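Box 3.1 A note on notation
Throughout this textbook, protein chains are presented in two layers. The first layer is the amino acid sequence; the second is a token string describing backbone geometry. Keep the layers aligned when reading.
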Amino acid sequence: MSHDQASYLELLARGAATEAYDRPVLLARASGAAPDELAAIEHAKQLALRVRAELEGRRRREAELSALFETAHDLAGLRDLDAVLRAIVQRARSLLGTEVAYLSLNDPSAGDTYMRVTEGSVSARFQQLRLGMGEGLGGLVAQTARPYVTDSYFDDARFEHTRAIDTAVSDEGLVAILGVPLMLGSQVIGVLFAADRRERVFEREQVALLASFAAHAAVAIDTANLLAETRSALAELERANEIIRDHSGVIERASEVHDRLTEVVLRGGGVHDVAAALSEVLDGSVEFTDDDLDATGADGRAIRHGDAWVAAVSAGGELLGALVLRGRRDLDPVDRRTLERAAMVTSLLLLARRSAHAAEQRVRGELLDDLLDAADRDPRLLRERAARLRADLDAPHVVLAARIDGPGTDAADRDAACRDSTGRDTATAERETADRQRLWSAASHLAATRSGLAAARDGGTVLLLPLGPDDSASDVARQTARQLGGTLRELVTVGASSPVAAPADDPSPIAGAYAQARRCLDALRLLGRSGQGAAAQDLGFLGLLLADPGDIDGFVQRTMGEVVEYDRRRGTDLVRTLDAYFASGMSPARTKDDLHVHVNTVAQRLERIGRLLGPDWQSPARALEIQLALRLHAMSAAVAH
């Protein structure tokens, strides 16, 4: 081996640059070597350069294979798609020696393409670029499914230039760009790019290398999509399993509830037995109540009320009570449905019990009718009939008169009905009949629970209820109005008589007490106190007159008879004007607004009233008497109708 050949081997061994291989030739020429020797040295140089190129190519292929192997390793342990794509773009940029590499993906839903990963980019506009399908170099790659390269982007007319793309490429300063398609089968899903900020020619090996990275990127995206679909399928399966488990639990719990409630019904249990069985099934405390029913809905749905769950027990629009569950902060749909079904079973039990008691209620009504109409009944027989009904007629009692007062019903409406009762349509009559039946049914149920009696009478209901040691007639009237109103979801007005001692000993006061209760009821309605309960003593001086009517008509005649007679003869409205005048605080201006007349008309009428009643008619004492007479006159007119 010659000295020059050894020099080239040394250059190969230390990986010298290409320029270093010219040095042995130059030294030989400088020393005056013969032509044959120079030719041999030149031949050795060419051989050394060929060996160097082969070694360089092998090192490059080794680096490429290593990078591809690392990429495949990343795919095998794929956890984060963004991280894998970023690694692919970084390795492509490094091996191709470009300043920038990036990857774009198609968005079928938006119909365009967007930047997914960039490496080496400095322009925010470029990193956020979205471009339409078929635009730019990437659009050409996507259309043809083939790699495309340009060594000078802005001078290349093979693809469609757009302002948005050109502006972004210009901001980034790119000149030479290579793009290869990302393929899934025959479908292009995106493009992988390598680019420089100067003119450059990409070699065939570099195009093939970038295509290999693009294939890995497509596999990574496909794998990630498959994993996402698998996870979604697994999640759906898990949800399906949960639904199956829930449905299985629902069936088991529904079967248990059905068995327990069936057992209660078959053995003749009542509502409290249903509540006890439900307490065990729902793991809480359940009770039936007929108090505070305003908190419940009439449709039977279980609703949250305070710290409890409440389901209404109703039938035919009538609220019979409610099941109240305590001790459960939340209820799932199954438990809520269980509570609602139990409320339905409870309503059926109550209806069955009501049907069984219907005959007893009719007997109670007949006994009360006899007490009202036949005061000469044998006390012994009355006691025997009362004992069979579990009523004690030897205790003090109170007589109550009750009527439903629907919304919008006032004295004027009732007066109009009295004047033209034949003009009412069939629907109104049917509704009133239904209301009276509902009131009698509710009152009979209440009377049975209080060991009393109830009967339908005079378009309303009359009750005879015992008085406890601490009860007053007023208390019983208010309580009865509240309970009947809550049950019927209507305004129920109740008037009470003074207490009646031992009706079995002497039934004769019952009829008078009933008349007194009816007068009290009419007074309450005329006073605008519909939906309330009261006894005569609650109405002050008016109550004294109601308790002992005496000469009410004479009092009205003496106090304001001339005004009433004047209206009757002349067809005027002095009584109504007088009532409006006192109601407006004795203000002519407000009186004319209430009557919808001119203030001069009010003044003329008041002057006429003064001539009829005397100059002192507006003094406090006379004014009080006149107002009382107005009330009694209105009440007398209503009773007459």
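The first helix runs from residue 3 to 13. The two ends are 146 Å apart (CA to CA).
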